[in-house]
């Protein structure tokens, strides 16, 4: 069910301010693509434009094309809400719904849309999603407890379970480990490895080792200069980007000479 | 290459979203309509009262002569209340924000808020049946010793149901709102400023005088004006404490007292009919305009301060 | 904590050239001692034959003069002023508590005498002199307050939703926010006159009905609801909204199913406090609903009794002999106070029990 994404010449604005300029990038299905780059270069903004989440901020808009299996996300008759059902997202800080139990959090995608569901079907989805996010064993005896009763790492895996429960085509992850300790981080990285069998995954990370560990492809973003918009410097196989990049700026960043 | 923007073309919006946004916006606009409606209906019903001939209304005078003494009484009562309440409210706010131990400060704040929760009719009852009697010795003393001042000219009222008593009750009633606003602003003083003052060897009072009070100045002004607005419109305290005769006098301790617009409406409404009702509504319009102006200015002062402080 | 900046005349000598950090000061527990001394002084003045109020005032005066003087002689004038301000600020708070305590005491002690089953189960119909009760007034207050709440809460909550979720920072929301603030300052009697002026148009002069009172109270209650609900909605973390959007949930469902439930405890608290505020309003009901001795369950027809107006009327036109009527006024005031305090208590409890406890 995974799909590929083709972005061509995408500009992202906040009001009149051009935040990201001219991004063209193919994202392969059933693989992990990592976005790296210094802070404020527009990685997260670009990621959020892939499921039209950036529109939540008033005044934000894009020009250009984002094709998911040939269909333009920004077409005139496309409903952003429908887009987000196909392209799930995991955020920087774990954000389970505090008013819901673990069980209900997993089902939030359907519950919030008031879809009727048989209890047996719901149980199947909850177990499958929690198993997929490696959380089942830890929480199966306390599904009725509030989601906020879990540890930070568990909460983040709960959020991943919530995202995969609606069976999206693509999973976007915005620095999913930046608020977690090393053990939880490694648990999430293992999980990403397993999930890429079924999903197209795009992950933004500040941690270069993490990009090297989990991704097949890496895209390096950078600011075109002080006060200028962010842009995509280069994209390619992770092994190549980390060993022998085409651009000098990429090499400098990866070797820690700036950023 | 085809360009698609989500701005130039009408974006897809779900019907549920459109309905919900419509209801919400409608509710917001309804509030503005209600506010406008208050002004419009008071004007419609008030104009006949303003235009009425002296022999058509119970007061037996023109509207200006009828409402003039009441405006005086309203402003005077609010002013007396503010003079009593303001210093007290600032001190109480300081006590809660900077003097009381952290653990009990919140509880003490609740106690002050309870003052705001007491129904106005209870305040009236207290002022008339309890406080008035207790203040009589003070009025006797003022009459005997400060009687040369116009405020204490006397003769002092033996029941204690004087303009000053009404002012004290009003002061207690507006104390919580002034305290709440100033306390809020005292607490917003940047911690760094306070610590800078303390690091220079300032005592607690010097720190407050150097950092907290200058920072809060416009907030105090705004809070005072809000309290003034509340005092202008308060009905029961004056209506129940005074047996007003509608004179114009600065005398605070006699039993012959000015009345206020709201108290006069409350006391006269039941026995009025015809154009007298319209005159009362017109006096309410005057009160509405005065309090609206005061509150408008007060909120403007408070909000402007908020924008500049950056402490939202 | 403070370092000496004045010429070094008081510091102990023999500690080298730098200014000494040791300063003479009053004993550490001076604050407590001052309070105890003030109480003893007040008792002393009382024993000398002064009334309670002058005794307390004199004791306070002694403290206000003596402590700063003592402090000046030992610690210098800066510390003395600091102590003086501390005393003034503390006594201001104590002074502000006096009316609250006195009101509570008098209402309870005066109101308790009429409490009894009869007081709650009888109306004032055909009662002259002693007896009678507030059964009719309790019903009137409940029904009118209920109608007010039913009108105010939806309008207030939806307006708050508009301000937080849709208005962002556009000009309309700015004006609504500002005018709602201004509206909180509308005098209650003006709200009553407005309702009367509005209903006269439809029902003719002299109209009195419970619903008109409810409209008047709604004008007072809506702005309070808007402001408190707005504050609560603002406290809902944006991350939760984003989490919901990212699951493909439309905005309105996000508001109904995520934002409002998360803020529910705060909203209930705010609404309860708003009810507590309007339930004691007297002036608007006096104008729009009037006075009645009998039970009236129909808020769309005729006069009704309400607790605050009942108390006002009982004291204002007590009849003869006035005693029983004044007692009933205190009784109604006590019941009203209990209702208001209970509402405040419930509000605090709700916000305390259901407030998010943070992570874990």
Low-confidence stretches of chain A: none
Give me the number of helical elements of chain B: 10
Order of helices and strands of chain B: HHHHHHHHHH
CA(first)-CA(last) distance of chain A: 37 Å
Low-confidence stretches of chain B: 1-9
How far do the termini of chain B sit from each other?
A: 45 Å
User: What is the approximate shape of chain A?
Assistant: globular
Helix segment tally of chain A: 11
- Structural class call of chain B reads mainly alpha
Name given to the CATH homologous superfamily of chain B: MetI-like
| Number of E strands of chain A | 10
User: Numbering strands along the chain, what is their spatial order in the largest sheet of chain A?
Assistant: 6-7-8-3-9-10
CATH architecture of the domain at 5-99 and 169-254 in chain A: 3-Layer(aba) Sandwich
Instruction: Name the structural class of chain A.
Output: alpha/beta
Which fold name fills CATH's third level, the topology of chain B? Answer: MetI-like fold
Number of domains as seen in the coordinates of chain B: 1
Largest interface: B-C, 99 and 102 residues
Notes on the structure:
The complex is a heterotrimer of chains A (259), B (312) and C (360). Chain A is of the alpha/beta class and 259 residues long. Chain A is built from 11 helices and 10 strands. Chain A has a domain of 181 residues: 3-Layer(aba) Sandwich (Rossmann fold), CATH 3.40.50. In chain A, a hairpin with a 2-residue loop joins strand 1 and strand 2. The model of chain A has no long low-confidence stretch (mean pLDDT 87). By secondary structure, chain B is an all-alpha fold. Chain B has a single domain, classed as MetI-like (MetI-like fold). The longest helix of chain B is centred in the first third of the chain and has 37 residues. By secondary structure, chain C is mainly alpha-helical. In chain C, 71% of the residues lie in helices and 0% in strands. The radius of gyration of chain C is 29 Å and the shape is flat. Chains in contact: A-B, A-C, B-C. At the B-C interface, helix 1, helix 2, helix 3, helix 4 and helix 5 of B face helix 3, helix 5, helix 6, helix 7 and helix 8 of C.
Q: Helices, strands, pairings?
A:
The complex is a heterotrimer of chains A (259), B (312) and C (360).
Chain A: E1 5-14, E2 17-27, E3 32-36, H1 43-49, E4 60-68, E5 71-72, H2 80-86, E6 87-90, H3 102-106, H4 108-111, H5 119-132, H6 136-139, H7 152-165, E7 170-174, H8 182-195, E8 200-204, H9 208-214, E9 217-223, E10 230-237, H10 238-243, H11 248-254
Parallel strand pairs in A: 3-8, 3-9, 6-7, 7-8
Antiparallel strand pairs in A: 1-2, 1-4, 4-5, 9-10
Chain B: H1 15-51, H2 63-99, H3 102-117, H4 120-146, H5 163-188, H6 191-199, H7 204-233, H8 236-241, H9 261-268, H10 275-309
Chain C: H1 30-47, H2 52-75, H3 77-111, H4 117-121, H5 135-166, H6 171-183, H7 188-203, H8 210-235, H9 238-246, H10 251-279, H11 283-288, H12 307-316, H13 323-354
Helix pairs in contact in C: 1-2, 2-3, 3-13, 5-8, 5-10, 5-12, 6-8, 7-8, 8-10, 9-10, 10-13, 12-13
């Amino acid at each position: 069910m995974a799909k590929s994404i083709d972005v061509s010449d995408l500009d992202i604005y906040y009001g009149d301010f051009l935040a990201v300029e001219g991004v063209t990038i193919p994202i392969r299905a059933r693989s992990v693509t990592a976005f790296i780059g210094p802070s404020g270069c527009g990685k997260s903004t670009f990621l959020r434009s892939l499921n039209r989440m950036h529109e939540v901020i008033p005044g934000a808009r894009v020009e250009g094309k984002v094709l998911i299996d040939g269909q333009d996300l920004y077409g005139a008759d496309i409903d952003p809400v429908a887009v987000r059902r196909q392209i799930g997202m995991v955020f920087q800080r774990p954000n389970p719904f505090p008013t819901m139990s673990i069980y209900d959090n997993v089902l939030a995608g359907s519950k919030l849309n008031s879809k009727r569901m048989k209890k047996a079907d719901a149980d199947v989805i909850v177990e499958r999603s929690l198993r997929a996010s490696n959380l089942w064993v830890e929480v199966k005896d306390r599904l009725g407890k509030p989601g906020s009763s879990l540890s930070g790492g568990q909460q983040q895996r709960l959020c991943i379970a919530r995202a995969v429960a609606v069976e999206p085509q693509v999973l976007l992850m915005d620095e999913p480990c930046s608020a977690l300790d090393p053990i939880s981080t490694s648990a999430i990285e293992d999980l990403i490895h397993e999930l890429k069998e079924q999903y197209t995954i795009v992950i933004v990370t500040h941690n270069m080792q993490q990009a090297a560990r989990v991704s097949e492809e890496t895209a390096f973003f950078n600011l075109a200069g002080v006060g200028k918009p962010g842009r995509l410097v280069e994209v390619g196989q992770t092994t190549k980007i980390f060993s022998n990049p085409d651009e000098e700026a990429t090499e400098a960043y990866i070797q820690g000479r700036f950023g | 290459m085809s360009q698609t923007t989500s701005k130039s073309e009408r974006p897809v919006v779900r019907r549920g979203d459109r309905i919900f946004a419509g209801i919400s916006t409608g509710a917001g606009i309804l509030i503005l309509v209600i506010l406008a409606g208050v002004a419009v209906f008071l004007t419609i019903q008030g104009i006949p009262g303003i235009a009425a001939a002296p022999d058509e209304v119970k007061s037996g005078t023109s509207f200006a002569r009828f409402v003039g003494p009441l405006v005086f009484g309203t402003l005077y009562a609010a002013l007396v209340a503010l003079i009593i309440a303001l210093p007290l409210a600032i001190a109480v706010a300081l006590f809660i924000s900077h003097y009381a131990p952290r653990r009990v400060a919140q509880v003490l704040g609740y106690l002050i808020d309870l003052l705001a929760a007491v129904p106005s009719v209870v305040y009236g009852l207290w002022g008339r049946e309890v406080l008035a009697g207790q203040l009589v010795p003070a009025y006797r003393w003022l009459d005997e010793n400060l009687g040369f001042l116009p405020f204490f000219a006397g003769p002092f009222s033996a029941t204690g149901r004087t303009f000053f008593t009404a002012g004290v009750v009003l002061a207690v009633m507006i104390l919580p709102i002034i305290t709440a606003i100033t306390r809020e602003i005292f607490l917003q003083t940047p911690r760094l400023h306070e610590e800078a003052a303390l690091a220079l060897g300032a005592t607690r009072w010097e720190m407050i005088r150097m950092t907290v009070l200058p920072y809060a100045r416009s907030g105090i002004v705004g809070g005072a004006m809000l309290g003034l607005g509340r005092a202008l419109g308060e009905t029961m305290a004056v209506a129940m404490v005074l047996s007003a005769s509608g004179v114009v006098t600065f005398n605070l301790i006699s039993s012959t007292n000015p009345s206020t617009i709201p108290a006069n409406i409350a006391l006269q409404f039941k026995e009025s009919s015809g154009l007298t009702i319209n005159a009362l509504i017109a006096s309410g319009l005057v009160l509405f305009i005065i309090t609206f102006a005061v509150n408008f200015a007060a909120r403007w002062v408070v909000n402007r301060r908020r924008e500049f402080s950056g402490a939202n | 904590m403070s370092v000496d900046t004045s010429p070094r005349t008081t510091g102990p000598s023999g500690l080298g050239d730098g200014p000494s950090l040791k300063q003479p000061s009053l004993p550490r527990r001076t604050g407590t001692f001052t309070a105890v001394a003030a109480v003893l002084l007040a008792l002393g003045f009382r024993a000398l034959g002064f009334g309670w109020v002058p005794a307390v005032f004199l004791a306070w005066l002694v403290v206000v003069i003596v402590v700063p003087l003592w402090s000046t002689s030992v610690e210098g004038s800066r510390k003395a002023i600091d102590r003086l301000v501390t005393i003034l600020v503390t006594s201001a708070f104590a002074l502000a508590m006096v009316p609250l305590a006195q009101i509570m005491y008098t209402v309870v002690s005066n109101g308790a005498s009429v409490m009894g089953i009869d007081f709650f189960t009888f109306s004032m119909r055909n009662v002259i002199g002693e007896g009678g009760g507030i059964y009719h007034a309790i019903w009137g207050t409940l029904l009118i307050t209920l109608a007010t709440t039913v009108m105010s809460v939806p309008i207030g909550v939806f307006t708050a939703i508009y301000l937080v979720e849709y208005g962002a920072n556009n000009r309309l929301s700015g004006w609504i926010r500002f005018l709602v603030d201004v509206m909180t300052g509308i005098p209650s009697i003006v709200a009553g006159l407005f309702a009367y002026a509005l209903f006269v148009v439809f029902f003719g002069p002299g109209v009195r009905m419970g619903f008109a009172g409810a409209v008047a109270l709604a004008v007072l209650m809506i702005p309070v609801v808007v402001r408190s609900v707005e504050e609560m909605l603002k406290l809902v973390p944006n991350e939760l909204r984003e989490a919901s959007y990212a699951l493909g949930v439309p905005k309105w469902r996000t508001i109904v199913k995520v934002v409002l439930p998360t803020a529910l405890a705060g909203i209930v608290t705010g609404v309860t406090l708003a009810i507590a505020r309007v339930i004691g309003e007297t002036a608007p009901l006096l104008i729009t609903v009037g006075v009645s001795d009998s039970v009236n369950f129909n808020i769309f027809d005729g006069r009704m009794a309400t607790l605050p107006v009942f108390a006002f009327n009982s004291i204002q036109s007590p009849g003869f002999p006035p005693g029983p009527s004044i007692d009933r006024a205190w009784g109604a005031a006590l019941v009203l106070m209990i209702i208001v305090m209970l509402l405040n208590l419930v509000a605090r409890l709700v916000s305390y029990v259901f407030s998010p406890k943070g992570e874990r």
